[in-house]
Amino acid sequence: MTTSSTNAKPGRSLVTPGATPLKAGQVLEVVIEALDDEACGIATVGGMRLQVPFAAPGDVVRVAVEAVSRHRPQAVGRCLEVRRSGDARQAVDCTRSIQGGGRCGGCPALHLQGEVALEMKRQAVVQALTAEGLAASVSITPAPLSRGYRNRATFVAQVSRNGTRYLGGYAPRSHRVVRMTGCPVLLAPLPAVCEALEALMNRLEMPVHPEPLGLRYVLLRANAAGDVLVEGIWRGCDEPMLRAFAQEAMHIPGVAGVWASENASSGNAVRVSQARHLVGARHVTHRFGRVDLRLNAGVFAQLNADVASQMYVAAAAELGGASQIWDLYCGTGGLALNALARHPDAAVLGVDSVAESVALARAAARHQGFLQRARFEVLDLRDAVPDGPMPDAVVVNPPRRGLDAAVRDALASDDMGATTLLYMSCGPTGFARDAARLVSAGWRLEDVRAWDMLPGTAHVELLARFTRSRPR
Q1: How many CB atoms lie within 10 A of CB 158?
Q2: What is the pLDDT of residues 408-450, one digit of tens each?
Q3: Coil, strand, or helix at residue 221?
Q4: What tens digit of pLDDT does each residue of 222-280 get?
């Protein structure tokens, strides 16, 4: 590892790597050796693992140690200066990002060369499988666009010291809110709507966080046509202010409808209660693969419709011959409805614990003439799986944590009868843990494909295919 002498800032000690264990406040120069699955650079110092956000392999960086683990030989540092750039680094033209001189850390892989970032994501899947004793060839597909792809945004409502209201996001590892207007990864016209909402908040002199009552968060959802839904999340607000906000927001170009929900909790959750419709459109329609999904501002849907479309079409192609399909954790119906569009003789049973999502899936099925072949139900899969008809094939898209125990047990049982399982996941670790359990229960892991769902981030989405012989 290369080291050199540098002048430390007053009050900080400059140490030679390897001489002593790392301590908070130390400043040192290191060579970044690799990337972890959070897109952070990694250096080894005196047998300790030093994580350096916004660094790239081959970089020589000056680092301030910010925190040292009490339980593991690892520490986290802050990059003070890139003394020499490695070949893995690329120029960053987003001046809002930390890598471009700003304060936003929302795209922690923005400084990485495209092929380097893709390989980092592919390796995250490979390493997760290897850790569970599984071997599989993993491919990765790049995203069509690296900017202007994200169809949903969540903003924190904030007021500055001079009383100006603004919309932002939390800076990395802090509760400091930095302004987020003009974000280039957002689908148009979300950046313009964000700026117009800020102007509206100031014009109405709206009470916002950190005041005891008022606007806390703003959710925005856009479709490819440029229609935007706005949901204000309030700690508490009188009805006249709510109505004034909604009516004024409808004059913003692109805004199609406005919703509101309450969040008086002290936790970090953004949306904790059912939203109510205030004015305008109740949903927007967005094309995913071969079908139109109906979305509101708050429900889960893939943030990159182009990449999700590729994945849904790929999944549907694997389901040929299945007459009865279960879609577990179905959300708004993307996988299920694409399967029906591809296979006119198939029927689907979709279940999800979120009633709001299930209602939108039913509406999309009705709109596209699939109701006779599609059934969507509200069911908490932590408690049970659906009660028949038994499927030939199962598709799952669980949360990052992976499958619920009831689902794993059902898939391991011979009673289900399914011979094909497609697993879509945003969490390689949870997926690999589930894959190992499925393999031990008789499933064969045939194929794993990864997609760059959110360019500029460490996020990777995967689609895996399992098969098994038909139980006797």
Answers
A1: 21
A2: 999 999 888 899 999 999 999 999 999 999 999 999 999 999 9
A3: strand
A4: 999 999 999 999 998 889 999 999 999 999 999 999 999 999 998 889 999 999 999 99
Identity at 38, one-letter amino acid code: E
Report the residue count for the chain. 472
* Positions of E strands within 303-426: 324-328, 347-352, 374-378, 393-396, 420-425
Contact 343, 317 (CB under 8 A): no
* Coil, strand or helix at 196: helix
What tokens does 265 get?
């909790």
Beta pairing, strands 165-170 & 152-159 = antiparallel
Edge to edge, the sheet with strand 152-159 lists 177-179, 165-170, 152-159, 214-222, 228-236, 255-262, 276-280
- Using a cut of 0.90, tell me whether the model's pTM lies above it: yes
Question: For 122-174, what is each residue's pLDDT tens digit?
Answer: 999 999 999 999 998 999 999 999 999 999 999 999 999 999 999 999 988 78
Contact 208, 215 (CB under 8 A): yes
Q: Mind listing the domains of the chain with CATH numbers?
A: 1-89 (2.40.50.140), 152-286 (2.40.50.1070), 304-467 (3.40.50.150)
Beta strands at 48-52 and 41-45: parallel, antiparallel or unpaired: antiparallel
Neighbouring CB atoms inside 10 A of 419's CB total 18
